[in-house]
Amino acid sequence: KAGVTQTPRYLIKTRGQQVTLSCSPISGHRSVSWYQQTPGQGLQFLFEYFSETQRNKGNFPGRFSGRQFSNSRSEMNVSTLELGDSALYLCASSFTRNPPGAYGYTFGSGTRLTVV
Amino acid sequence: QQPVQSPQAVILREGEDAVINCSSSKALYSVHWYRQKHGEAPVFLMILLKGGEQKGHDKISASFNEKKQQSSLYLTASQLSYSGTYFCGTAETAGSNYKLTFGKGTLLTVNP
Questions:
Q1: B89/A105 Cβ within 8 A
Q2: Does residue B33 contact residue B46 with C-beta atoms inside 8 Å?
Q3: I need a surface site. Which of A100, B14, B32, B87 has the fewest CB within 10 A?
Q4: Sheet hosting strand A64-68, strand order edge to edge
């Protein structure tokens, strides 16, 4: 069965621009979480969606937003890009509707965003 | 609250054992373990629910001490393929907390 698909794989943007990243979860998975990965900070939680509802949000500025569609595909948007937004953005899907208890996450390969 | 992992890095020779620890200051109901190889996505290894159970497959196992909010990952008779960064992820019991919080990772290098 197909894994978690993230597009695009690589992006180069200029400061001040905005960007939209896409994530298609494993078929049947309705929970999608987004993480920012940087060498110094590890995996930082951005937000989690289930059935088109954002259930939790991490400590990121309002420039970071997301949404989920009825087919469980999710997008995240970063507006007014800053140099510090350069990172690997990972999405992960999970089967359960419950808090992350019984099922593991399947991660996509990520989108590498570089802001210049 | 980000869990704390230790050690930050460990270097082994093939066949040696290693233990990676993960601790939280919050009450937990589950701990996840993932391995990420360079340039790849993190891969799920196992999940432990509160109750102190120990899980494992092949030569990798883990335990979860619910009272101490600590988990340990045990790698025995390490293989070259075990190299990578290991992350623990914790889910807290408080409220409707739909997120998994990851530690900063432990870089494991297995040499021949």
A1: yes
A2: yes
A3: B14
A4: A5-7, A19-24, A74-78, A64-68
Which 54-93 residues of chain B touch chain A by CB within 8 A? 87, 89, 91
Average pLDDT rounded to a whole number, residues B81-90: 96
pLDDT at residue A1 is higher than 80? no
Q: What is the DSSP letter of B42?
A: -
B13 vs B97: CA distance, rounded Å? 40
Q: Where are the beta strands (DSSP E) in B37-105?
A: 43-49, 54-57, 60-65, 70-75, 84-92, 101-102
B7/chain A closest Cα distance in angstroms? 15
Mean local confidence (pLDDT), B67-86: 94
Whole-number average pLDDT of chain A: 93
Tokens of A55: 């259930």
